[in-house]
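Take our chain:
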Amino acid sequence: MSTKHLVAWAVTFVVLLVIDMIWLGLVAKGMYQQGMGELMSPQPRLAFAAVFYLLYPVGLVIFAIQPGIEAQSVMRAAVLGGLFGMFCYGTYDLTNLAVIRNWPLGLSFIDIAWGALVSGVAAAAGAVAWRWFASR
């Protein structure tokens, strides 16, 4: 892993974390509480969340940012990041719909769309950081 990869990962990590914390903590908190009901833990398990937020940007760097940079296109990185997010969040939500009784369909659609959006934005930010660092 090069320094460019590390810079892209770090920026992607920060952007993903900040935007997701605003979404989960302020914007959509009530929606998730209402939709998940008793399934939702009263306190988040921060160790598991930390593992997600450390690993997920690695996937964005590998599957979205680096291919976007190779194509010389931040937009390509954003689109690939959005697709990566749709597939990852879709795997989670569709599995929940398949195995958890009364899992809310509407919440799944919103969550998948959110995953695509936040992943695309974070990948674009990581690609911009990679380009900036590489041009120095």
Summary: The chain has one domain: 3-134. The chain has five helices and no strands.
